[in-house]
Amino acid sequence: MSKGKVLITGGTGQLGSDIGELLLKQRYQVYSLSKKELDVSNYEQVEKTINEIKPDVVIHSAAYTKVDLAEDNQDTAYLVNAIGTRNIAIACEVIQAKLVYISTDYVFDGNKQGRYNEFDIPTPINVYGSSKLAGENMVKDFHSQYFIVRTSWLYGQNGNNFVKTMLNLAENGRQINVVNDQSGSPTWTVDVAIKVSELIKTKLYGVYHVTNSGECTWFEFASKIFELAQKRVDLVPIGSEEFVQKANRPKNSVLDHMGLRLNNFSEMRHWGDALEDYFLKTSQKTTDEDIRCEL
Ligand SMILES: NC(=O)c1ccc[n+]([C@@H]2O[C@H](COP(=O)([O-])OP(=O)(O)OC[C@H]3O[C@@H](n4cnc5c(N)ncnc54)[C@H](OP(=O)(O)O)[C@@H]3O)[C@@H](O)[C@H]2O)c1
After folding, report:
1. C-alpha dist (Å) from residue 160 to 114, 156, 185
2. Cα 15 to Cα 189: distance, rounded to the nearest angstrom
3. Alpha-carbon distance values, 264 to 93, 257, 259, 261, 287 (Å)
4. What is the largest CA-CA distance in the chain?
5. Which among 110, 154, 150, 116 has a CA at the least distance from the CA of 252?
6. Keyword set for this entry (predicted)?
């Protein structure tokens, strides 16, 4: 028997696809919609789709995620991340569906000494972070049963991410320079999916930081990736000023899991353990696919 209907926006994205896969296994009826099937910036489409499906839960994972391009495409970033989220929130409130809004560590400026908890005041320093924070405010303004889930430094099987970029760079044998003065918590999409599946079973609404625990710099993250991939590369630590990007990045975006603690959810595992598991699972998947091809 189905546990209920879940609609996922951005269902073909890196995180949305892993949430969909897990909830299907947990016997939810999953409507995992691509941008083509549901453009969140189109209010009529959002209203019609949500009214027709009548989901019990909506997981809003769709976003304009191009952090540097957002600096020049401010209107598009706000249209998708703020207005799109308003559309979802209004339609969900009408049918009383629980809403999970996926947000980001980039709502913080990175100047705090120590980890950011859910009660720290966000002050974003780039357009992407500002538009995602505007999305959080839309959820709070227009919906009553919500989980705002802030995550960070995501990697997963389906999508472009830092792990894949590093492994691709290793192929050409050149020196790889990686920033060593920005700290955060790398997070496997599968672990976020598990925690989201725990949250939606409850009515413990509010803001949650959902990242793998522990912290590192991008350079330390890269070192661990190459260690696990057993690749020898010429990896060089550099400062942010040597790697100029269009959008500002927070120096510290490590998130404390106070929300999980205070509501008696289990702690997230360490990012190093999650990354190890990711490598194990992806190599296992590749082997299985090779065997199927040979058969
Ligand atoms: N990646 C990270 O490190 C990270 C960190 C913190 C938070 N987050 C948040 O986590 C969520 C998932 O991110 P992700 O890494 O899975 O990103 P992703 O792979 O880029 O997925 C985002 C999805 O949203 C879709 N989308 C874009 N505009 C849309 C629209 N107008 N209507 C409907 N769908 C639209 C994209 O479709 P197209 O590809 O067809 O455009 C894509 O499938 C996002 O909310 C993001 O802000 C990500």
Report:
1. 29, 8, 17
2. 5
3. 27, 11, 9, 5, 38
4. 56
5. 110
6. NADP, Oxidoreductase
Q: Which of 78, 128, 146, 208 does the annotation list as catalytic?
A: 128
In total, how many domains does the chain have?
1
Name residue 90's amino acid: I
DSSP type of residue 81: I
Looking up residue 153, the CATH number of its domain turns out to be 3.40.50.720
20 lines ligand 1 (CB under 6 A): no
Residue 119: domain span: 5-160+185-213+254-271
Q: Are 222 and 178 in contact (CB under 8 A)?
A: yes
Angle between helices 127-142 and 84-95 (to 10 degrees): 20
Residue found under tokens 């065997």: 291
pLDDT profile of the chain (295 residues), mean per 10: 93 98 98 98 98 98 98 98 98 98 98 98 98 98 98 96 96 94 98 98 98 98 97 96 94 98 98 97 64 41
Which residues neighbour 120 within 8 Å (Cβ) at sequence distance 6 or greater?
108, 112
- Residue 288 within any structural domain of the chain: no
Strand order in the sheet with 29-33: 29-33, 5-9, 57-60, 98-104, 146-151, 206-209
pLDDT at 1: 73
Task: Report residue 174 as tokens.
Answer: 């050149």
Q: How many helices (H) and strands (E) does the chain have?
A: 10, 12
Residue 128 appears among annotated catalytic residues: yes
Residue 218 lies in a domain: no
Tell me whether residue 16 is in a domain: yes
In-domain check, residue 232: no
DSSP 256: -
CA 180: distance to chain centroid? 22
Q: CB of 139 closer than 6 A to ligand 1?
A: no
